């Protein structure tokens, strides 16, 4: 028999072997198939490449709404109805009017006017200190008339929520927190919560991570008119291209974060430093000092300081060094635009690095309304052990029942092996995509074993009906009949579980996803392979 004929005849078994082999590689080869070096290092204490969620690794889950108010579908005169083009200048004008309003004082980043994919304009403010009437009055100053009760609602747009989830996920990854996730959860009444889960982190640490908006600015603090000092934002987090980890400062105490400025912003920053004197009389002229937490602005002399500001708080102040000033003065710095942002403590430096890498949260979370779940690692280890024992017990129980039912190792042994292969494939898939396994997923695996063996029993009962099954034609006829029953049951299960897998229903979602994946693996891979094995054991083929 040639290789092509062999493949054609045994393709179902070969497909099962290929998937099991790939799953074993994903599970046990260091780093799996697609992991990078940092992921490999984080898994040093784990014999497999599996990641675990809160229920099996300990950690914290915080669920909180977003602070904000939205005026939806406003008539801003910014979208051309004929060609759908957007007047960005008009959007900026409305946004600036919100910032300039005398009734309330919006901080940087707390207003946004945007256009969604359908061409609708939305205005948002991210504060809980403004009433709907005040918001409507501020929009009216910009020429936008809205009804405070009908057109304005609490909460933010779907676009903003999606950006919050993306930013929190980036913060988790930038902080090196393996297995952490963030997602959006809908509640009854139309309220939305942002859910963040991070294994091996206590509530205070996660709360601190989420409470920081991460709005980073470099502010020039320099002499103005009549002996006053001027604050001017010269760089924002959006102008930073790359960020390196923090390190002890070479200029003395504190820490520094090496950053590379985006090439589009570098020339303007260089020109502004030259214009306001930082590269001339301002070189080395900053004597502001801090106590590790705050910077003192009590000074008599003129100051030329570059302030590192995070969420409105000054975390460091330093002067322009002569080497950097010289390269800016002769215009060469913009060709390699890098410098250091300072922090007084290592913790501030680490937070600054994370915020620069992940970007700023579009809106703050209302942590006063948070719902917190925390599980200690010791208790999670117990759950992990119990899950393993329950899984082993389910396999032993199913194996015993199958052997009692058939009393034929030719039928029972392939059944158990095939069912276990299904679980291995699912575990390999989880390791491949780095799905954090939780107790709900364990329940899904147990359900997959049960439903899988049920389907295999249907196949065995059908093909062995009326005793004689030595004929290949008879076997194939009976197998097709059984497979139709299994296929219909699989379709029903997928349809029933799909809403649970799509909706944000907490732990039910993990159970539904594993169950659906198990059904698909069973119908497409393991059930046909079991039929192939049974055919070779029971027929004359």
From TrEMBL:
UniProt entry tagged with the keyword Transport: yes
Coiled coil: none
Top-level taxonomic group: Archaea
Protein topology in the membrane: Multi-pass membrane protein
Domain Protein export membrane protein SecD/SecF C-terminal: start-end pairs: 368-524
Main location: membrane
InterPro entries, per the entry: SecD/SecF_arch_bac, SecD_arc, SecD_SecF_C
Quaternary assembly: Part of the protein translocation apparatus. Forms a complex with SecF.
HAMAP family assigned to the protein according to its UniProt record, in alphabetical order: SecD_A
Function: Involved in protein export.
Family, similarity comment: Belongs to the SecD/SecF family. SecD subfamily.
PANTHER family linked: PROTEIN TRANSLOCASE SUBUNIT SECD, PROTEIN-EXPORT MEMBRANE PROTEIN SEC
Protein name per the record: Protein-export membrane protein SecD
Organism: Natronorubrum thiooxidans
Gene expressing this chain: secD
């Amino acid at each position: 028999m040639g290789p092509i004929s062999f493949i054609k005849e045994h393709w179902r078994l070969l497909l099962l072997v290929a998937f099991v082999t790939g799953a074993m590689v994903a599970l046990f080869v260091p780093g799996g198939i697609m992991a990078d070096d940092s992921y490999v290092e984080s898994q040093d204490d784990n014999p497999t490449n599996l990641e675990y969620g809160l229920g099996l690794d300990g950690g914290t889950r915080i669920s909180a709404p977003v602070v904000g108010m939205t005026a939806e579908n406003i008539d801003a005169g910014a979208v051309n109805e004929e060609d759908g083009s957007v007047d960005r200048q008009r959007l900026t004008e409305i946004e600036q009017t919100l910032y300039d309003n005398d009734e309330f004082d919006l901080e940087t980043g707390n207003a946004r006017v945007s256009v969604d994919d359908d061409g609708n304009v939305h205005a948002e403010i991210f504060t809980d200190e403004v009433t709907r009437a005040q918001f409507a009055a501020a929009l009216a100053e910009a020429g936008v008339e809205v009804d405070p009760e009908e057109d304005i609602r609490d909460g933010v747009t779907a676009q903003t929520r999606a950006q919050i989830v993306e930013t929190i996920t980036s913060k988790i990854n930038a902080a090196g927190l393996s297995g952490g996730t963030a997602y959006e959860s809908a509640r009854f009444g139309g309220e939305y919560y942002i859910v963040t889960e991070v294994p091996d982190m206590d509530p205070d640490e996660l709360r601190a991570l989420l409470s920081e908006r991460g709005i980073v600015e470099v502010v020039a603090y320099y002499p103005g008119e009549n002996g006053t000092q001027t604050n001017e934002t010269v760089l924002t987090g959006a102008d930073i291209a790359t960020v390196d980890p923090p390190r002890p400062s070479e200029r003395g105490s504190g820490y520094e974060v090496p950053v590379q400025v985006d090439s589009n912003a570098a020339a303007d920053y260089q020109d502004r430093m030259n214009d306001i004197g930082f590269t001339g009389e301002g070189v080395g002229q900053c004597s502001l000092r801090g106590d590790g937490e705050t910077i003192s602005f009590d000074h008599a002399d003129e100051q030329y300081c570059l302030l590192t500001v995070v969420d409105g708080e000054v975390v460091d102040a330093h002067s322009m060094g002569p080497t950097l000033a010289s390269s800016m003065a002769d215009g060469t710095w913009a060709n390699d635009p890098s410098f250091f942002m300072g922090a007084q403590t290592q913790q501030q430096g680490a937070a600054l690095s994370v915020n620069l890498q992940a970007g700023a949260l579009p809106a703050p979370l209302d942590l006063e309304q948070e719902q917190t779940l925390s599980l200690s690692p010791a208790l999670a280890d117990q759950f992990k052990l119990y899950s393993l024992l329950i899984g082993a017990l389910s396999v032993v129980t199913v194996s015993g029942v199958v052997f009692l039912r058939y009393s034929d190792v030719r039928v029972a042994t392939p059944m158990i092996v095939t069912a276990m292969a299904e679980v291995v494939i699912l575990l390999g898939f989880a390791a491949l995509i780095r799905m954090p396994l939780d107790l709900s997923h364990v329940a899904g695996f147990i359900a997959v074993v049960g439903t899988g063996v049920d389907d295999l029993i249907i196949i065995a009962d059908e093909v062995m009906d009326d005793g004689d099954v030595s004929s290949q034609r008879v076997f194939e006829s009976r197998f097709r009949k059984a497979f139709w029953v299994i296929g219909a049951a699989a379709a029903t299960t997928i349809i029933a579980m799909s809403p649970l897998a799509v909706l944000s229903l907490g732990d039910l979602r993990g159970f539904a996803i594993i169950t659906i994946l198990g059904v698909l693996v069973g119908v497409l891979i393991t059930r046909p392979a079991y039929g192939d094995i049974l055919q070779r054991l029971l027929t004359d083929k």
